[in-house]
Structure formats: C-alpha cells, structure tokens
Amino acid sequence: MEQPQQSAGPEEAGAEAGKPPLRVGMVGYAFMGAAHSQGWRTAGRVFDLPLRPVLTALCGRDAAAVRAAADRHGWATTETDWRALIARDDVDLVDICTPGDSHAEIALAALAAGKHVLCEKPLANTVEEAETMAHAAETAFTTRGRLAMVGFNYRRVPATALARRMVAEGRLGPLRHVRVTYLQDWLNDPEFPLTWRMRKELAGSGSLGDLGAHIVDLAQHLVGERLAGVSALTETFVRQRPLPGGPSSGLAGATGGAAHGTGTVTVDDAAVFTGRFTSGALASFEATRYATGRKNALRLELNGERGSLAFDLERLNELWFHDATEPAVHAGFRRILVTEPDHPYLDGWWPPGHGLGYEHTFVHQARDLVHAIAEGRVPEPSFAEGLQVQRVLAAVEESAEKNSVYTPIAD
Ligand SMILES: NC(=O)c1ccc[n+]([C@@H]2O[C@H](COP(=O)([O-])OP(=O)(O)OC[C@H]3O[C@@H](n4cnc5c(N)ncnc54)[C@H](O)[C@@H]3O)[C@@H](O)[C@H]2O)c1
C-alpha cells in the first residue's frame, strides 16, 4: 500500500480545543470537494460542536494534483486510491465527493469497514444501487452504530429551514400547491464539452439527477410528505458535443478541439414533471441547464389555505410570506430577512442583516452530521431518504418514456 504523504497536521485550537476528534477522509477534491472542505474546516469554529472535525486525508487519483488540493484546502495527508483511504485506522468518516458512478462502491466499502459516511447527491445512479446502500446503512447503524447521510445541502439554507419550521407549525394550513424549479444555463452553448455530467454511465441522468434530485428532496422535506406519483417530460436538446480536452471541474470544462472529435450526450438536458403528494397537494417541478440568464435559480413557492411561502436561491437570505388570515386590505407577501439569531443556523454567525451564502450550507451540513454522530442518531437526510428520492427520479424517467403517463412512486 502506498504510504500516505504527510504534512503538518491541523492545529487543535480555539473553540475546538480539547474535544474528541472526528477524523474525516474525503474522496474527490474539485467542486464539492472544495465546498465540503470549507464545511469541515469551519463548522467547529463557528458552532459549539461535541466533536472536533479533523481534515485527516484527501483522496484523488493524481498524486501531485491531490497534494496541491490538500495544501489549498487544509488536509493533512493524501491518498491516491480510495480503498487505501478506507483502510486507514485514523479515518472515522468517509466523505464522498465523486461523480455518481463511484458512490455505491465507495460507500458500501466504507460502511463495511466501520466508517461513518457522507455521500453527495444523488445517492446513486440507479434504484438498485441506492437500495443496496440504504440496506448497508441500516445494517451499519443497527450492528455498529455507524451513520450515513446524503448531501442534500439545500435543506440547510437558513431560509429553507425556516420554511420547513413554518410549514410544520401550520402557518400555511393544508397545502394545495408546491411549485419548484431549478434553473441553470451553463449548457446552452452547444460547443460546451461532453463532461461526465452528460454521460449516463457516470452521472446516471442529466438535469434530472443533478438538479431534479435537489428539488424533489427539498419539496418533500418542506411539505413533510412523500410524492405519490409523477407525470413527466424529458428532453435532450443538444445530442452531440465536442469531447473534452482534459479533466473537468464542477460546471466548467474545455473542449479538446477538432482533433478530439465529438461524442453523444446520453442523459436528459431538462426534465419537467408534475406530481401529487400523498395528502393531495399538487406539485410541479422543472430542472434544466438551458434557462438562459438563470444561473442557480432554485425557486419554490408553497400555497396553503392559510398562507404562502416563496424562496429563490439567488436571493438566499430572504423568505417571502403571505399570511392569508390577515384582512385583505393590508395583506400581501412580505420579506423575512432570515438573519436573526433565532432563525435556523444563525446563532453561530453574524449580527442581523449580515447575510450568508452558498458555502454556509456545507458548514451547516457538517455541523448537523457531527451532532448526529455524537448523539448516535440517524442523520437527515438518511440513505433511506436518498433511496426514496432515487425512486422518484426513476418514476420520472419511466413516465417520460411512456409519454407522461402518471407513474406511482414505488415504496
Ligand atoms: N450538493 C450540491 O449542491 C452539489 C453540487 C455539485 C455537485 N454535487 C454532487 O457532487 C458529486 C461530485 O460533483 P462535483 O461537481 O464536485 O464534480 P467535479 O467534477 O467537480 O469533481 C469530481 C471529483 O471526483 C474525482 N474522482 C472521480 N472519480 C474518482 C475516483 N474513482 N477516485 C477518486 N476520485 C475520483 C475527480 O478527480 C474530481 O476531483 C456528484 O455526485 C454531484 O452530483 C452536489
């Protein structure tokens, strides 16, 4: 086995001093790797955590590149094979930030080796993989107290967490409509290269699994119920794209030029679907990478008998609330600036009005997982919840293949 490359270990300082460590090993160091690093680095310095996250080992396949990423993001050592990372005795938790084709294999091996697991979304590329992972997570919990969580980080925007609280408190009354879109535009250029996100064998699906998974999870989380069935359309607008010239990262990529040729896109570019919640509320969903001008517009609106809530990720410190019980003469949507110390996650941050951003969702994710591990309770969203989202995605694909026929979600 290759020896881990060592550099100076992270200091035990400030708010974290004297706390038992939670030693993290992370696989993948590009977009989500950077975001998760930020979360692990920061959570214990902002929040009073029962355990001290330690950035113990970072894993990638290129030794020089992973060492550079470890230095940049604050990881003590590196590995070039995820199996070696999992074999280490000084790693308590494996954080999976790779494309979906490797989620199942890494998570199953990590759980079998007695590690806690945080796995990026979507949980897997198929329902079958997700079923195996959910089963392994349940066994790891019941036999060894090991925990597994999926990275649906948009539950952890303070404004969406407040929306969840308000729905649960009954501020909206019985829900009638759930309207959710997740709009990006980075694929609009037909010359954008065919990165892993456009290859089914690596990504599982396209906008559906990438963006649709987020909004299905968030909608079900906010409503506090599951979708019963869906009717869907999907489309691939650009079927041939230039092959990339090298490794891609996040939503960026460079073409290799004419010498590299083109390849076939094997996933959806956009998915549009309607759904019915078990209580009868009607839902609509739209996930696309072709909404020109929309960069990361996860927008939702909930309409209930007693009121409505609206949110837009591009203005993530705000939640809009209409109280339908007020006299019509002065009722209307009003803006809640979600930066008060009593708002979810805000107790550790800045004075009111000093807003948060995208990266803070990963700090909150690390915080919540550390608490769950210290308390020995299954974190949310669990692998079982990740599996259920996978079943919704599969029903969307099945419905789209059958010209939008209403497709119940399997239990
Ligand atoms: N929660 C969110 O908001 C969010 C946002 C973007 C991506 N994601 C998810 O995160 C995951 C990663 O996406 P990304 O945008 O970070 O991708 P990326 O292309 O930016 O990074 C992927 C990383 O995985 C590494 N990798 C791939 N296969 C590997 C292997 N077998 N062993 C070791 N390393 C390997 C690559 O070298 C790279 O470092 C995906 O599941 C994606 O759906 C989640």
UniProtKB/TrEMBL annotation:
GO terms for molecular function: nucleotide binding; oxidoreductase activity. Coiled coil: none annotated. Signal peptide: none annotated. Residues 1-20 are annotated as: Disordered. Residues 162-309 form the GFO/IDH/MocA-like oxidoreductase domain. Pfam families: GFO_IDH_MocA, GFO_IDH_MocA_C3. The keyword Glycosyltransferase does not apply. Residues 22-139 form the Gfo/Idh/MocA-like oxidoreductase N-terminal domain. Keywords: Oxidoreductase. The keyword Cell wall biogenesis/degradation does not apply. Residues 8-20 have a biased composition (Low complexity). It comes from the Bacteria. This is Dehydrogenase. It comes from Streptomyces phaeoluteigriseus.
